[in-house]
Model the fold of this input.
Amino acid sequence: MARWDEVERQALVDALRAASPDAPTLCEGWQARHLATHLFLRRHEPWRAFREQEGSRFAELAEQAADPSVYADVVERFAAPPAPLSPLALTDGPLGMVTNFAEYVIHHEDLRRGAGAVPPRSLPAEESDALFDALGLMARAGLRSVDVGVVLVVPGGRRRVVRKRPDSVAVVGAPVELALAVSGRRGAADVEVVGEPEAVAAFEAALA
Done:
């Protein structure tokens, strides 16, 4: 089975290398330098990755990365593998498909779409299938505030019930778009929400 997490990590590294430190992203308040810092810390110092307050390692390094040379160094540090004997090296094995794959796809789109709409990437069919497989747990967490049932649907393909309620909507789109929709990026996701008007309105309001 292909290691799609590694494919996406390399694609994300390439995109970060091509971006300027101040390139916009879909993550509110973040430029490319913040995203690169988050990714580096998540991969190499995960105990610091989610401490983003002023004075934190994240805040200090992201500020320093406004300098293009520091930014480039942060990106290369993200690209580098963890030390072989580190427990973090486990995420470069099969565990990475569980812990990293969808994260890398979404953050790649955060960078691609930060300045506005862009043409969608065309993923290999196997990768799209693997991404759809990875959406179950993420969707349940991301849609916990939604009071209607939700079915994720790939046009002409697979479907998955991720939230059961008497009134339901179908969220229809390619797996990348579905990943954006269920991860708090509804405004950037090219999906169609189908159902009774009240259910659709409730879904959209919850994700606004």
About this structure: The chain has a mean pLDDT of 91. Strands lie at 149-153, 159-163, 168-172, 192-195. Residues 85 and 92 are 12 Å apart (CA to CA). DSSP finds nine helices and four strands in the chain.
